[in-house]
Amino acid sequence: MSEIKTTAPVTSAYRRETRLVHSGTLRSQYGETSDALFLTQGFVYASAEQCEARFTGDDPGFQYSRFSNPTVSAFEQRMAEFEGAEAARATATGMAAVTAALLAPLRAGDHVVASKAMFGSCRYVVEDLLPRYGIESTLIDGLDLDQWQKALRPNTKTFFLESPTNPTLDVLDIGEIAKIAHAGGARLVVDNVFATSLWQSPLELGADVVVYSATKHIDGQGRCLGGVVLSSNAFIEEHIQMYLRQTGPSLSPFNAWVLLKGLETLAIRVEQQTSNAAAVADALAGHPKITRLIYPGRDDHPQAATVKKQMRAGSTLVGFDVKGGKEGAFRFLNALQLTLISNNLGDARSLVTHPATTTHQRLKPEVRAELGISEGFIRYSAGLEHKDDLIADLHAALEKA
User: Fold this and answer.
1) 240-245 contacts: CB < 8 A, separation 24 or more?
2) What is the distance between the alpha carbons of residues 226 and 95, in angstroms, rounded to a whole number?
3) Cα–Cα distance list, 117 to 131, 161, 343, 363 (Å)
4) Considering only CA atoms, which of 88, 91, 93 is closest in space to residue 76?
5) Residue 190 neighbours by CB under 8 Å, 6+ apart
6) Cystine design at 320: which of 56, 101, 251, 293 (Cβ 3.0–4.6 Å)?
7) Can you tell me the distance from the alpha carbon of 10 to that of 6, in angstroms, rounded to the nearest whole number?
């Protein structure tokens, strides 16, 4: 097979929706329409000299699919151009991306500051895993800018946050937090899963690193796992590339191909899901069985001003409290006919989960209460179904709550 070449090396002049289709396109000599799938563990070389040059970096070709692969590289390039990042590296899962972005650049004696409101596995990495390697961590109320400032130490190297947060959809001021981080000599890592690149651009707001679970909206159809770290060339080359190469949380070429196909339709899917989420939020607001409703696209969101400042639209997620605590929430969940119970999100199908017993169950009850995760709290992920069918299903289930 002849050398694989990139037919659309730079698409940054185009709008995001166009980049999702054309960025990083790789074609073999056969001129295939769809992205090629390279299911190979390794690669062969024309000579021993070429093999040596590949491993020294003098020849930029591929060596081994744990290090890099044409299909995975196509996904990375498309994600980088979509996000507006200089570089990207893909991982096997979203949590592999988070762990790499946090752990790879840190050393024993360093310090991390993170918002308390985050996905349970992210909190485990920050609160439990990093300290095992001599990396201290401080958890704060991420909405309080003074707490970010006060938590800074001379050895603080990283700030970490999600916005909107999982699962209560708090929206943190990325730009202001980035200023505090940089003034203190730290980098800001942002998990942008709930907003997606379509509605929020953390790098443009001042963040240094962005991470995604590609399992969510990027695939968005419940087919595979994946993750991605996006940042400057310097950060990726100095910290992420060697970490991934040597520790091996590699994205499979097949999953990269699936994710490339997902990116082609991400814009139209996320736009429809966001529209559905907004309609659901409006339909549930004021319902007698719901005591609290949170949606970043509504004027009654606690951080509505921040949403308008840094997001181009709301989220595909809605959060709400059902009366009756856990029992009421379970009655509601079990009464749903169309909406599915799942801990996934960003899927073509509408999904709900009960964070207190799933994604955040390992946290102590008092910690969940502090984060606003009550026993009756529901995280709702809007799918692509007709909004009227979704609303009817939710209303019918609430009658049984």
Assistant:
1) 240/89, 240/100, 240/101, 240/104, 241/89, 243/100, 243/103, 243/104, 244/89, 244/91, 244/100, 245/66, 245/67
2) 9
3) 19, 8, 17, 12
4) 88
5) 160, 161, 162, 163, 174, 202, 207, 209, 210, 211
6) 293
7) 9
Q: Is 276:387 a contact under the CB 8 Å cutoff?
A: yes
Name the residue type at position 96. Answer: A
Q: Which of 11, 34, 13, 37 is nearest to 24 (CA)?
A: 11
DSSP 86-142: SEEEEESSHHHHHHHHHHTT--TT-EEEEES-S-HHHHHIIIIIHHHTT-EEEEE-T
Spatial CB neighbours of 184, under 8 Å, sequence gap ≥ 6:
152, 156
| CA of residue 144 relative to chain centroid, distance | 23
Give long-range contacts, CB 8 A cutoff, 24+ apart: 301-308.
301/169, 301/171, 302/170, 303/143, 303/170, 303/171, 303/172, 303/173, 306/171, 306/172, 306/173, 307/171
Q: pTM value?
A: 0.94
Q: How far apart, in whole angstroms, are the C-alpha atoms of residue 343 and residue 94?
A: 14
Cα–Cα distance measured from residue 242 to residue 32, given in angstroms and rounded to the nearest whole number: 32
Distance (Å, rounded) from C-alpha 144 to C-alpha 245?
Answer: 38
Q: For residue 261, give every residue at least 6 positions away whose Cβ sits within 8 Å of its Cβ, in sequence order, or none.
A: 34, 35
Q: At residue 140, what are phi and psi to the nearest 5 degrees?
A: -135, 170
Per-residue tens of pLDDT for the chain, all 401 residues? 234 444 444 577 888 788 888 887 777 777 888 888 999 999 999 999 999 999 998 988 899 999 999 999 999 999 999 999 999 999 999 999 999 999 999 999 999 999 999 999 999 999 999 999 999 999 999 999 999 999 999 999 999 999 999 999 999 999 999 999 999 999 999 999 999 999 999 999 999 999 999 999 999 999 999 999 999 999 999 999 999 999 999 999 999 999 999 999 999 999 999 999 999 999 999 999 999 999 999 999 999 999 999 999 999 999 999 999 999 999 999 999 999 999 999 999 999 999 999 999 989 999 999 999 999 999 999 999 999 999 999 999 999 98
Q: Are strands 187-191 and 156-162 parallel, antiparallel or unpaired?
A: parallel
Are the beta carbons of 157 and 291 closer than 8 angstroms? Answer: no
